[in-house]
Amino acid sequence: MASPSLPAVALDLAGRIGRYFNIVSVVPALFLTAWTTALVTSDAWKAAPDLRLMVHRLAGINLAGAVWLVLTTTMFALFLHPLQLGMTRLLEGYWGSSWLSRILLRRAITHHRKRRSKLHRRYAELAAARDEILLGQLVARYEERRAKNKNHQGDPRSWETDRLERALTGQLADDKAHAVTGLHAASAAAEIAFDRYPQASRVMPTRLGNALRSGEDTIGSQYGLDAILTAPHVALIAPAEHVGYLQDSRQQLDTAVRLCVVALIVTVETAACLLSDGWWLFVALAPYLLARIAYRSSVAAADYYMAIVGTVLDLNRFKLYESFHVKLPMNTVEERWNNQKLMAVLDRQKNSSIRYEHPAADTSGDPPPTPPRTP
Predict the structure, then answer these.
(1) How far apart are CA 150 and CA 132, in angstroms?
(2) What is the secondary structure of 153-218 as a DSSP string?
């Protein structure tokens, strides 16, 4: 009996593991394989890259060569897959506790704390400049109506704060507010960037880490829930469509993180090959720019992912209470009170205690009712 050929074995292997790998694994691994192949076929590791030689060699790849590329991509994917959590942690800013790590953490965290304060001041300045112009428009309208002896609602400068804020917000819809649209958009952008940061004492050394930590600290807080403690439990009891939606958003984050790390590896690889080749070294800027774009995309994906986590928690928190057999709250005040004890239990505090409320057992002996339209 003839032994199977190498192409057949490779294709069979790809088909078998294909169900365990998705775009998160394939795209970064394929990029790493393609770029490394281009460097090798152009002899970039020997001298300046020869593009004609690269094209000639790539055009001569046969089926066996293509299978080897598939195998290489698969091996890269297999190697990168278990490192996903570590790569995410690295980009979040968990860099260890050595003396070098402490120095890097101090500098990075100080930078982001200063940036957080700067964003807060910028938002306040832009919002104040916008409101000053809008208030001037309200005052001008008041003076105009007063000069014509028309009905008016008094001098806006004497209004209470809540009333004035509502009036300024309404003034944004007026045609005369076109002059402040730039200030309004800039203040909104500064506010969004500021909201990506947690409290000053919880600031992380990277943008991705701050975006994720901000979500961790705010999700479920209106109910007295801790997102870190409850999210794994909610993921087990949520409906399949909720979990699928959550996994899709997580996949976007994982893809961006892995592509960022792979692009950085390719940058180092390219720089090492082209270090002595003059202007060719600028080719390393291409994967570096891709790494920056992927990192910015990971921050946006983190915002989206944490928003989905919050939505899933909002919709399934009562299932969580029922699963723990705790009393369902009558209102949000009672819910926050009950969750103080529940969070203490989930945090493994031994002295904490909650009162269970078990569902009543069915003692009637009657079979469950038949659903409608069931034969």
Answers:
(1) 24
(2) ---GGGS-HHHHHHHHHHHTTSGGGGGGHHHHHHHHHHHHHHHTS--GGG--SSHHHHHHHHHHHH
Structure tokens at 265: 């590896």
Report field, pTM of the whole predicted structure over 0.90: no
More reliable by pLDDT, 63 or 290: 290
Query: How many angstroms from the chain centroid is the CA of residue 347?
Result: 25
**Cα–Cα distance for residue pair 328/319, rounded to 1 Å:** 10
Nearest to 280 by CA among 30, 35, 39, 115: 39
Taking residue 53's Cβ as centre, other Cβ atoms within 10 Å add up to: 12
Q: What residue has token string 């807060």? A: 120
State how far Cα 63 lies from the chain centre. 40
Q: Are 216 and 101 in contact (CB under 8 A)?
A: no
For 78, phi then psi, to 5°, come to -60, -35
Look at residue 19 and tell me whether its pLDDT is greater than 50.
no
Q: What are the φ/ψ torsions at residue 326 (nearest 5 degrees)?
A: -105, 160
Residue 91 burial (CB < 10 Å; 0-12/13-18/19+)? buried
Secondary structure in 3-state letters for 246-290: HHHHHHHHHHHHHHHHHHHHHHHHHHHHHCCCHHHHHHHHHHHHH
DSSP 356: B
Closest CA to 157 of 172, 173, 170, 141: 141
